[in-house]
Amino acid sequence: AASNATNAPPVADQPAEDIPPATMPSAASLPSPASTQTPMPAADGADAQASFAGYGDVKFGIAAAEMEKAWGGELKTLGKDANPSCYFMTPKWTKTPAEFAFMIGDGKFARYGTDSAKYVAPGGGKVGMSEQELQALYHDALQSAPHKYVEGGHTLSMSASGVAPAKLVFETDAAGKATAWRVGLSPQVDYVEGCS
């Protein structure tokens, strides 16, 4: 009977080969909290390439001459003749520079920003959100200061951990709604009037 047991065919619901037991994923492989994840595109098709390292393949610190290659398309240059040390580059399709623009400082990509609700900031913030919505989204990490020019408006900002000196800045109006946001390196990210 013992020899019969060793020659018995395998039980039908068992695999023929050895399979490792199921294991719990390590903490490192689990998704991070929503506040640190790359924002997902909104249902309206909003773009979500923004990060504290740059925008999509366009990373902070690359030379202005490399911007079009990194962007993957033609960029218009604005204001370089007036100020070669600080100017903007925008995609061909923008109607106004404020819709979406890259800032060049000292020949390198230093900042990007928008006044359009189409784009999603790192962490999920958008133009049109209230200050309360933004603070909730960023777990009260946004530092508030009076806006330099907008009566009753504010700038809400936070620095990226581990990516210093990258910073996210929202501008709000007197009603407390975000009217624009930008991400960039210091000092350019703090310029309120474009290049100043």
Q: Which characteristics define this entry?
A:
3 helices, 196 residues, 8-stranded antiparallel sheet, single chain, 26% strand, globular
Question: What composes the largest sheet?
Answer: 8 strands, antiparallel
Shape: globular
Task: Report the average pLDDT across residues.
Answer: 80
Uncertain residue segments:
8-15, 19-46
Number of helices: 3
Helix vs. strand class: mainly beta
- Portion in strands: 25-35%
Give, in spatial order, the strands making up the sheet with the most strands: 4-5-6-7-11-10-9-8
Tell me the Rg in angstroms.
Answer: 25 Å
Give me the count of strands.
11
> Can you write the helix and strand succession as a string?
HEEEHEEEEHEEEE
Query: Which range best describes the helical content: under 10%, 10-25%, 25-40%, 40-55%, 55-70% or over 70%?
Result: under 10%
Distance between the termini: 92 Å
3D architecture notes:
9% of the residues lie in helices and 26% in strands. The protein is mostly beta strands and 196 residues long. It has an eight-stranded antiparallel beta sheet. A three-stranded antiparallel beta sheet has the order 1-2-3. It is globular. Residues 8-15 and 19-46 have low confidence and may be disordered.
